[in-house]
Design goal:
Layout: H1 24-38, E1 41-43, E2 45-47, E3 50-52, E4 57-60, E5 71-74, H2 78-97, H3 100-115, H4 119-130, H5 134-161, E6 170-178, E7 182-186, H6 192-204, E8 208-212, H7 218-230, E9 238-240, H8 245-253, E10 258-264, H9 267-279, E11 289-293, E12 298-302, H10 308-320, E13 330-336, H11 340-352, H12 372-387, E14 391-395, E15 399-400, E16 406-407, E17 410-414, H13 420-423, E18 430-436, H14 441-451, E19 454-455, E20 457-461, H15 465-474, E21 481-484, E22 501-502, H16 513-517, E23 520-528
Parallel strand pairs: 1-5, 7-8, 7-10, 8-9, 10-11, 12-13, 12-20, 13-18, 17-18, 20-21
Antiparallel strand pairs: 2-3, 4-5, 6-23, 14-17, 15-16, 19-22
The structure holds nicotinamide-adenine-dinucleotide (NAD).
């Protein structure tokens, strides 16, 4: 029992470490990379706190060095998912009965573990398992993950503080109840922070969770689970399973106590999940909450007044960092013809200077793409662009899967604003550029708005204030995260809450109170201190 209105520590954004030569963090992560590469890690499921293995052992490899064995995980079947649901439902009454301060303390401790003693381990696991450079791992696995945990605790306490007014003689209260069942968290390969946030955000609000990460992110997911356990999260609150997507999805959707899915991944998969939930609506005890952040075809549109150096840097970083595998990555650009000659020369030269290779070599700016399916898809689009009459590969275009899944940073120039790579999400280091007549600014803004079904991120570059205002207006529904004179990637928790609309998801803004509000079912309580004792109203009395 707590007697006091406790205030949680004010959240802050974790400082990004440099890993420059001579820094202690560089020595530490190099040692951790060597250690992890020397081990073969066993990654069982975690159900109700117990390590569970199946007959189906699957190997884990770095995408940039697939002959190296990192470890094994154990594929789950439907019975394991059911076991995880049972474990979650069993602990549910105890977890909900804990005071919110206890939940806050567990996740604040987890944040300190991520940014402290586990920093090197979670970064190194993300580098090896997902082929991130040390900088990309640091901003994701260490910093963004710690930010999610700290800010979500703060948002929880702010939400609990949102209370209705009370008139004389009554007291109105809102109780932010957790949902009455289990949440299924489905996480993508590309961000360790998202993998940690999707199960923990509902758990912070008092819910119990079954978590299924992408197979290609299991290596770092197992470190997240270690951190939650070390922070004191009770067994069964978050259960980690590894079924194939459709097997897990089927068990989830058909369970009467399924109350919500917290998803980040592709639009196609999310649509399937939505349909499966709808097909089972008659058996659910509660209408499930469906929260999904999905794909993008993120744009950069430059006005004739834009600064070429700023624009070039944004394009290179926005399109090619983490091999273009950020949902927010710049993948289509609209450049006015007055800027193109100067931009083209410096852009091609910058892209040619990009060094790609194993992420253990810190001089590399890019690693490999996540797996063979992604490699094959990207190579196919690049080969087609080399042949198509309305497209030209102006830099990059080589693909090599002899030791890892390496795709050169590639720029396609197209004369067709509706060319396939201007509207389809490729999810790799491929940027398509369309050069427009500088005077057709307004027409081009409409083209940007109407070309792709997605609306996740986008950026406008201009010096002219009228042009910036016009873009803001025309592109009002074209992006959930919109940037002016900045690259469309790199949203920071608490500063730029993240999410998009249209085919990019339900826009429930992870890293904000809006997301946490999806994981509660408020109960309004009215208490009357002077309840009436007669049903008759005064107006009914005789004159
Ligand atoms: P994915 O859709 O292939 O997988 C996401 C998760 O869903 C995985 O855990 C996967 O195993 C599971 N899954 C697959 N089929 C399923 C099914 N039928 N039923 C239930 N679950 C199923 O996505 P990915 O390749 O891991 O990630 C890349 C995608 O994620 C890109 O489209 C990217 O734009 C998107 N993404 C979006 C955001 C955002 O905030 N909008 C952030 C990161 C990634």
């Amino acid at each position: 029992m707590y007697s006091g209105f406790y205030q949680v520590p004010k959240a802050w954004n974790e400082t990004v470490k440099s890993y420059a030569p001579g820094t202690p963090e560089r020595d530490e992560i190099k040692a951790m990379l060597t250690q992890l590469r020397s081990e073969v890690k066993d990654v069982p499921m975690v159900i109700g706190g117990k390590r569970v293995k199946s007959e189906k052992q699957k190997s884990l490899h770095p995408p940039h060095d697939f002959n190296h064995l990192l470890g094994y995980y154990y594929e789950s079947d439907a019975s394991h998912v059911t076991m995880a649901i049972d474990a979650a439902l069993e602990v549910r009454p105890y977890w909900q009965a804990l005071e919110w301060q206890d939940r806050a303390a567990i996740f604040l401790r987890a944040a300190d573990l991520v940014s402290g003693p586990f920093r090197a381990k979670i970064n190194a696991a993300t580098m090896l398992g997902q082929s991130k450079t040390v900088h990309q791992a640091e901003i994701d696995a260490a910093c963004e993950f710690a930010d999610f945990l700290r800010y979500n605790v703060q948002f929880m306490s702010e939400i609990y503080g949102m209370q209705p007014v009370s008139d004389h003689g009554i007291w109105n209260r809102i109780e932010y109840r957790p949902l009455e069942g289990f949440i299924y968290a489905l996480t993508p390969f590309n961000f360790t922070a998202i993998a940690g946030n999707l199960p923990s955000a509902p758990a912070i609000m008092g819910n119990v969770v079954v978590w299924k990460p992408a197979n290609t992110q299991i290596y770092a997911a197992s470190v997240i689970m270690e951190i939650f356990e070390e922070a004191g999260l009770p067994d069964g609150v978050i259960n980690l399973v590894f079924p194939s997507g459709p097997v897990g999805g089927k068990v989830m959707a058909a369970h009467p106590d399924f109350v919500g899915v917290h998803f980040t991944g592709s639009t196609t998969v999310f649509s399937k999940i939505w349909k499966a939930i709808g097909d089972n609506v008659s058996i659910h005890n509660t209408y499930p909450k469906i929260v999904g952040e999905t794909g993008g075809k993120d744009f950069v549109v430059a006005h004739k007044s834009a600064d070429v150096n700023t624009l070039r840097t944004a394009l290179v970083r926005g399109a090619f960092e983490y091999q273009g595998q950020k949902c927010s990555a710049a993948s289509r650009a609209y450049i006015p013809d007055n800027l193109w000659p100067e931009l083209k020369e410096s852009l091609v030269s910058d892209v040619k200077s990009i060094k790609m290779g194993p992420v253990e070599d810190f001089t590399n700016f890019m690693g490999a793409v996540i797996d063979e399916a992604s490699f094959d898809k990207l190579s196919m689009f690049i080969e087609n662009a080399k042949k198509d009459a309305d497209a030209e590969v102006i830099v990059g275009g080589n693909c090599d899967k002899s030791t890892g899944y390496f795709i050169e940073p590639t720029i396609i120039l197209t004369s067709n604003p509706h060319y396939i790579t201007m509207h389809e999400e490729l999810f790799g280091p491929v940027l398509t550029i369309y050069v427009y007549e500088a005077e057709k600014w307004l027409e081009t803004l409409n083209l940007v708005d109407q070309t792709s079904p997605y609306a996740l991120t986008g950026a406008v570059f201009a010096h002219d204030r009228f042009a910036i205002e016009q873009a803001n207006e025309v592109l009002v529904n074209a992006a959930g995260n919109y940037y002016i004179n900045d690259k469309p990637t790199g949203a920071v928790v608490g500063q730029q809450p993240f999410g998009g609309a249209r085919a990019s998801g339900t826009n429930d803004k992870s890293g904000s109170p809006l997301n946490l509000l999806r994981w509660v079912s408020p109960r309004t309580i009215k208490e009357n201190f002077n309840p009436p004792t007669d049903y008759r109203y005064p107006f009914m009395e005789a004159e």
